[in-house]
Amino acid sequence: MKYDLIIDSRPSEVAIALLRDGLLIELHKEKHNKSFSVGDIYLGKIKKNNPGLNASFVNLGSEKDGFLHYLDLGPQIKSLKKFTTSSVNEKLNTASLKNFKKEKTIEKEGKINDAVKPGDYILCQVSKEAISTKGPRITTEISLAGRYMVLLPFSEKISISQKIQSKTEKNRLKKLIKSIKPSGFGVIIRTVATGKKVAELDKDLRNLYKRWQTISKKLKKATPGKKVLSEINRSAIILRDLFNEKFNNIYVNNVDLQSEIKEYLSNISPSHAKLVKLHKKQTPIFQEFNVTQQVKKGFGKNVTIKKGTYLVIEHTEAMHVIDINSGKKVDQEKDQESNALAVNLDAAEEVARQLRLRDMGGIIIVDFIDMKEEKNRKLLTDKMIEAMKSDKAKHHVLPPTKFGLVQITRQRVRPEININTEENCPLCEGNGKIESSFLLIQKIENKIETLSTQTKKINILTHPFVASYINKKDGWFSSSICKKWSNKYNKKISILGDERLHLLQYTIVK
């Protein structure tokens, strides 16, 4: 499989499309003036505690306060508070935690009032963007994500991705990271670190530590709501999390953005910087790579799969519902159970793609076609799990119920992408009403009257139905409307049909 990243830089936003063998599997939009992005780090100030929710509301310098639950404080919240306050008051002049005296860890199931109080300064990170009327969800367990690892301040623990199976490799990585990591920091080793040399890992670790130093520097004399560290741009995040040897090309239509991405790739994988190419054609970049067409087809209420099978996708406040319809896909040589299984397996692939493409989160209920045999339900569950393996968002798939309903939970960290693929009717312009046909005839005659003083011959194009009506005789001895106009204005008038025009359109041919 080959992956292409198409980046469309627009005046108000950057749109990013990830293609797998030409098929659109992810679409991201990042507005330039966005308030909060996942990963951004702020100096916050506790505004008030809510013991009932066991949470705090935090002033982040915006209309919407951040929501901080006790479980998102992290065990080292008291050490973090001490570091933050000391840095703001300029009592701490170093980012190093080697000689920093840590405070006691808090209880796992304690009370919010015992951990923080109104007026406290805290360093916090956006974990979930503002959605609808809710403010962003934040955490004080700060994590700085790199290509090969995640750096965790105020921790000493070294964790390794569960996807790394080899015990030998686990031991190698753990020993290596232990020898190079700064004191007072923990590290999570990512799957892509497998087989990497010490030089590459050390470079990534140094870059992450530099970001921590930036935070420490910006905290000095900072006021609540100050952003002390911005997450890298969305295209770089996708490259950081998804980039591998399967990437084929990265196309971008902006010179500055091309330079940024090349610079980022030069740091994480220098040999692949040449993959970044500038789109110079007049054709819009999304249109050139068939993204626009796929967006139009993939974001409607009804999504066609193949051979007549289609999905119906509905959204509510509580959940998303996807209904599977077989349409005309029926193999006469197979029984009902076999046909249902074939449709469901095809649909599972598309459901997984749609969840990732639209970034749908929360609870998703999928109404697959009923199947009686347990082994077929098991096949469907396995297929659904397999189809969602490449989805980076945390998710969980439950087996089908006896009614064929599959429940999926998927992590939601930003608002779902919702693109309106409908267009206004060219006749009624979206209001459901059109002008009387009599008025159209009157308009055409008024135009003829105006032109009759300027030319000897008048040719008018209109919809074939209208042309037929105007040219039709009203009886054996009666004249057509067109003939009456010719006599009335003493001009040669031709009314011709053109199916490119809609019902109420007409144009003058000179």
Task: Please summarize what this structure is.
The protein has 510 residues and is of the alpha+beta class. It has 13 helices and 24 strands. The chain has 4 domains: 3-32 and 234-292, Nucleotidyltransferase, domain 5 (2-Layer Sandwich); 41-229, Nucleic acid-binding proteins (OB fold (Dihydrolipoamide Acetyltransferase, E2P)), CATH 2.40.50.140; 299-410; 437-509, Hypothetical Protein Ychn, Chain: A, CATH 3.40.1260.20.
3D structure, described in words:
By secondary structure, the chain is of the alpha+beta class. It folds into 4 domains: 3-32 and 234-292, Nucleotidyltransferase, domain 5, CATH 3.30.420; 41-229, OB fold (Dihydrolipoamide Acetyltransferase, E2P) (Beta Barrel), CATH 2.40.50; 299-410; 437-509, 3-Layer(aba) Sandwich (Hypothetical Protein Ychn, Chain: A). It has helices spanning 77-88, 112-115, 167-180, 198-219, 234-242, 255-268, 285-288, 291-298, 336-358, 374-387, 437-451, 464-471, 481-489, and strands at residues 3-9, 13-20, 23-31, 41-50, 55-59, 66-69, 121-128, 137-139, 144-145, 149-153, 158-160, 185-189, 227-229, 247-252, 276-278, 302-304, 310-315, 320-325, 362-367, 395-397, 405-410, 457-462, 492-497, 506-509. Strands 4, 5, 6, 7, 8 and 13 form a 6-stranded antiparallel sheet that branches. Strands 16-17-18-19-21-20 form a 6-stranded mixed sheet, covered by helices on one side. The protein has a 5-stranded mixed sheet with strand order 3-2-1-14-15, with helices on both faces.
